[in-house]
Amino acid sequence: MYEISFSDGTIRYIRMETSREGYAQIGLVEDFTSVMLERQRMEHERDYDALTGLYNRRAFQRESEALFEHSEVLGHAALLMIDLDNLKRTNDTFGHDWGDAYIRQAGQCFISSVPAKTLCARISGDEFNLLFYGYQSQEEIRALLQNLSLAVSNTALELPSGRKLPLRLSGGVSWYPENSTDLSTLKKYADFAMYQVKKAEKGYITEFDLELFTKNAKETEMRRLFHKMLNEELFTYYFQPIVSATDGSIYAYEALMRGNLPALTRPDQILQLAHEEECLHEIERLTMFLSAKSYATFLSTHQIRGDELLFVNSIASQYMNHDEAVAYVEQYSFLQDRIVIEITEEDSPDLTALLKKREMPGFSGVFALDDYGSGYSNEKTLLELAPAYIKLDLSIIRDIDSDPDKQQIVENIVSYAHQRGMKIIAEGLETPAELLKVLELDVDLLQGYFLAKPSAVPKPVSAESVAVIERFRKHLA
């Protein structure tokens, strides 16, 4: 249908159709009433959802935007986003015709349960938007939402069998102007609130929670940064000396992971995200390869002697696959007999993974049990892991010089380990008094800030700590 204005001010309408032979046919429409009815039909099809009779997405957007240009009309307003909870099951069980009937029933419930001025729309298959506006307070709207929830709970679709299928929905509400005065932001907030319902138990309407949204946004950003870190291998490995208790020389280095992004540096953060995102294997692979790469650089630049062991933190449940192990052998075969696998995950060791680590081509098969005494390590773990090294947790070492109970614990562990050919490492040493006491308790190896802090390039052992060790040995002699 086309409208044509003539120079004399008259308006005529023409209809263009295609004949059966494919020729265009133009006819003058004389009946103005039929023209107007046709126009109304076209406008209705443009703006309304055919199934429910509610506004469609485009009309809802247009009408909402028009309202948001007049804050005095909006007053207090609420945007309600709804998802129907039983639609997929209805479609799968009874067919799409009954799914359509379920949607239609929902639309009728909404129309009959809210004030006439409320904007109601079907946005997509099972998604609806309702905009309540022009109220004096949130409490007025909350009363309307309560009425709607009650109406929904009393609505059901009667199925062919005679059984009634209850109408069930999940919804999220955002508030104007309390949450935002911007329509797109309110949509984002209402959608977030609805998602929280669907993620939980479904079947109710909840209001937007800014604190929860902020927390979720932060977590989402952290996950994005974590995957960026993995994809671009944005890791640095710091190295901390493990020192001989006999003469203060460097016996080994422990490789400690650090993230290279300002918001994501701590190993505990990285490992937690790796666990949540199911990326523990990628962390294991990167740790093995990148720590070895740094160590090889120190060797080639003569920054270390070359006979020190390398303690690498490993995840108990993870191990390199065949292709990764082959690549590691090709690049770092000269280093493999110096590797000590340090188990750090706070779970019982995975025996299959431990066996795979032990049998990896070229590796020494030597383990260290980290954080012993922190709560998860026990005698059963010692028997399953059979480590060559036991690292005493810093919670035991802290203030050991003044705590007889801790001294007794270390004395017992040292006795147990030495009878079985294991070496004891006291980690977390921060004072001369702590160092002196663990020397008296006959530990084998030492680690901590008092001796040397972790750094990207290995540092020498502090002269003060070496002096403590030398004085102790001279005293024994």
CATH architecture of the largest domain: Alpha-Beta Barrel
How many beta-strand segments? 18
Name the overall outline. Answer: elongated
CATH topology of the largest domain: TIM Barrel
The name of the CATH superfamily of the largest domain reads EAL domain
Low-confidence stretches: none
Q: Which structural class is indicated by helix and strand composition?
A: alpha/beta
Domain EAL: 215-468
Organism: Fusicatenibacter saccharivorans
Domain GGDEF: 75-210
Protein name: Bifunctional diguanylate cyclase/phosphodiesterase
Q: What would you say this structure looks like, in words?
A:
Residues 75-210 form the GGDEF domain. It comes from Fusicatenibacter saccharivorans. This is Bifunctional diguanylate cyclase/phosphodiesterase. Pfam families: EAL (PF00563), GGDEF (PF00990). Residues 215-468 form the EAL domain. The chain has 477 residues and is an alpha/beta fold. It has three domains: 2-46, no CATH class; 57-208, Alpha-Beta Plaits (2-Layer Sandwich), CATH 3.30.70; 220-476, EAL domain (TIM Barrel, Alpha-Beta Barrel), CATH 3.20.20.450. Helices cover 45% and strands 22% of the residues. The chain is built from 17 helices and 18 strands. It has an eight-stranded mixed beta barrel. The longest helix has 23 residues, at 210-232. It is elongated and about 105 Å long. The mean pLDDT is 87.
